[in-house]
């Protein structure tokens, strides 16, 4: 049978939850960064696991590719239907299915966003900590192994997904994991699907770990004259075992962006933004020890805010950093890099990157989740300016090479998508072939987000 | 070519590191619990990754099965050469290759034991936290996804392995992971090999996370009249977010075993053994909050020990619990169970199990890592008494069914081996087939620890 038959069948099954409207195709063909417009042939909006399984079976029978769509906030063109076919939009599967406060876990549908989840949890005294800057879907976050500002304390999606329900390429529906906190029962399939970017199956349900809202929270910002002492502060804090809940680095250019976008009044210098969670006295003690380390490293302008509204303002500003940076060059498109290195190499990684960007013609503020050794440069290019895009790509390429040279990874949290596929072999060597073998045995016709992740793909 | 040729080739290559001596075959045919004696046909003692790869290629060429051997302390017959072939003993690959104190990680060979590693780390102020009761090898611990008393704070092997070097069934040598703390670069192969029990490849190197030795440590023991209030104490402590480093439950029978084996003077009642790690004031505060919860739940005999020698005595006693329990019935063999449930179901799981054992004719002390919802019954049977073994297996079977009924897993930390293979389908449903697909694509001739883990196997 041919593709038109598949689309007809899907349309009959889904009614107005099957769409080929220009606005739907446009929305699902766009991405947050510099990748070209790549619309799917149709968009479907399933409401149940059974519908997802039926959709997959119809597509499998007709050889139609399927690409999952959470909120489309991924930064490497992950969710674009590179080989055509349909976009499976999970926005109508956005319910909290079951909260288990006594076990500190929750069962959700994949289209629910992290902010929606935390709103629903508010009354329970629990929260879900993983927080990429964007209000991403939990299915998308699991698929990219997302993290964010709190990973240094609470882990990434790898550590916070207990189990999944997944529809495989042949329509089988499997469940991975249990609600027990740990298990030694066989291969870690949960871990295999987390970070697989929809290339092995579609996630239709997630069981997530929750954490107790801390009794006390304290946050601070401090400035440094140079990058080195800021990073040394981070290293020393980690080594002393002071349990930071967040520790974020922003460089002078990002501080300037905050000033103009969010009305902040930060000196145009490198800064650390930090937060502690715990009992009132533990937080006070941690803040004091940290303050001492900052002082030893010549940091200043140290100001604590334990008022909730100040903290909210601080982290809202941080979460909007991407848009603040875009504001440095109105109309610009961003190429967002994402390198992660062992912490001992972080200062050198940031400084080399800073110098490399300074030599280029492109603005590129740097910021990152430095407690994990992870940082980004936001390279701002004029849309349609091929020379600038090439220059930005060359900078990004050198960042990737730097990450590998320093013993790190080409992506700390954003994932592979289209942008990093070319580095998989360099990072993984023959292990990349093993990924290809796993892909082929689970998706022999290469219909799940094809063109991505594996060799040949 | 035939098997004898393979053995000749291996002998020529390895000299006296290839053995068919009775003592070597005997040692590698035995297990810690009730599984029958199953000797391999030969034992090899490689010293390098290249040798392991050569061994695997020779075996692959001749269709000879290979089963890894760390320290042989696994409890479900994991390391027995069920289908014959050779036992690959990693005891000569036991070096620390590189410590990176500033990054808090270490690169080791698989045959190194956890105690050897911690001895070598002592001067660095760092330690490796995962501690099964036995002095297991790190390769074995990764292969079974081991945990132990500290998982509630520091995680299991899943959370503490950053990367691996693995020799695959066809002799390819791959590396997974990097020394960066997190990565979103493709499928999590590290996680796939951790817990795979040597059925997908042989681990020849591990990069492990380390943790700072805590500034202060405080440990305590307290007694309860019933199991319920002991478990409620654990649940309330978790919910208040008091960061326990260890929280262990032992029942009245185990307390009695400690008294006779280790000369303890514990009332024959259920007990909790707990430890806090942190700054001096944080530990003091945590101890106080915990003491309040214990009192609220009617616990007593609460005694703190912050003197290192008292703590060492306490945890040595706990680590020797298995042998203490064996001592309750001299000459007995143990069937060690290992269930793990969501914490809200823990009291009911322990109480039902306690009652079920009480109705049987078999002694069965219960103890466990209750902060994770994980506990064991040590069922003591007379060697050669088939009726007792059958009764113990029936008890163990009901524990497994109970774990699944309560939303848990058939093994929290010991793994599948031979003993739990029959429950894989019940726990995983169709996901078990997926494990079989992965196994077949990576080891199509089923030579890596054959007869285990997957369907058909
Ligand atoms: C301003 C901004 C800040 C950001 N900050 C961070 C950050 O700090 N940390 C971080 O990790 N990321 C960050 N990101 C990137 C992005 O938010 C994450 O990659 C996020 O995980 C994507 O979620 P999504 O729901 O938008 O997924 P999408 O972009 O819709 O999809 C991502 C991938 O997952 C697949 N997918 C989606 N849903 C499913 C499903 N149910 N089953 C199977 N596959 C599925 C898609 O096919 C695609 O391959 C940021 C992005 C922006 C725009
Ligand atoms: C008294 C006692 C207490 C215990 N307490 C705990 C506990 O608290 N928590 C816990 O998790 N476990 C516990 N165990 C079980 C045991 O210690 C663990 O399963 C441990 O991980 C086994 O390590 P090992 O080196 O002995 O491995 P082995 O028993 O030698 O092997 C285990 C499995 O791994 C494979 N293997 C070994 N080395 C490699 C390698 N390099 N590459 C690939 N495969 C390999 C083997 O083929 C086998 O399948 C306990 C055991 C005893 C005897």
Automatic annotation (TrEMBL), chains A, B:
Cofactor(s) recorded in Swiss-Prot or TrEMBL: FAD
Keywords: FAD, Flavoprotein, Oxidoreductase, Transit peptide
GO molecular function, one term: D-lactate dehydrogenase (cytochrome) activity
Enzyme class: oxidoreductase
GO annotation, biological process: lactate catabolic process
Domain FAD-binding PCMH-type: start-end pairs: 36-213
Oxidoreductase recorded as keyword: yes
InterPro entries: FAD-bd_oxidored_4_C, FAD-bd_PCMH, FAD-bd_PCMH-like_sf, FAD-bd_PCMH_sub2, FAD-linked_Oxase-like_C, Oxid_FAD_bind_N, Vanillyl_alc_oxidase_C-sub2
Assigned EC number: 1.1.2.4
Family, similarity comment: Belongs to the FAD-binding oxidoreductase/transferase type 4 family.
Entry protein name: D-lactate dehydrogenase (cytochrome)
Source organism per UniProt: Rhodovulum kholense
